[in-house]
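I would love for you to help me understand the pair of lines that follows before we discuss the fold together.
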Amino acid sequence: MRPKYYALFVFFSLLFLFYPGDSPTFQLFAFHRKNFQKEPSLPLVTSFVPVLRVTSTPVVSAEGVYITDLASFTPIFAKNEHLHLYPASTTKIITALVVMDSFKLDDVITVKQVKNEGQTMGLVPGERITVENLLYGLLVHSGNDAAYAFADFYGYDAFISLMNKKAEALHMKDSHFANPAGLDDDSQVVTPFDLSLAGRELLKNPELKKIVSTKAITISDVDFQIFHKLENVNKLLGEVQGIGGLKTGYTEAAGENLVSFYKKHGHEFLIVILKSTDRFADTRSVVSWVDGNVEYVDMKPLLQ
């Protein structure tokens, strides 16, 4: 490349990345500067920046979508990313983060009462189970009874308060939580962008990252008297190469929700699908679109 053309390439690359103006096309590739300004302690861990080969968009039924490159937290595609929607069981991402802040993995939880509404793992009143095993019930099997067991044992109102404080700490400005399981409540809302912040935080924790990638597991209470066979609700685990979890959600009001961790050629993505008519088909469509349209430019030589 001739020197003058190289200089122009550097100039416009940096311009588009850091000063995208009002252009939605340029903004698509710009770093989420506001988010980084609020998290000055979070360094940019890569010099590779995603760009689109063509200006196509993934075909999805979901009302809210947010796709981001994890390393740089650069948005790749967004649809109604700040729209208030019901989270359903994607709420349990925040529930799990609060649990990790509040307990040790080998702490023992006594089940005070059992919430049998919706999806459950089959807890028994009075059952004593470790935090680690209960997290499997929460995140793998999406047990509403597991979510309420954590909240009740800690102190229900205090636990819900911690959930909202956690959301605030993660800069989830448009989200609010009223229960730990994701049951529909007019005051319990999230946005696709906010869920990407929560999902990113969960993936920073090695234990939680391992749990959400588990296809199936059998766990027990501390006395090995009660056993729970848990199957991951996420059909894509083990079926779509590169999918490593993260969290499903469904209620009639929320529609089908899915937050996914996807890895391809060493690059990692977070895919948020909300209020879909087919979350698994939508996520497959997004994965295919990412594979065919996203490539990376190494900005390091241009910044030296």
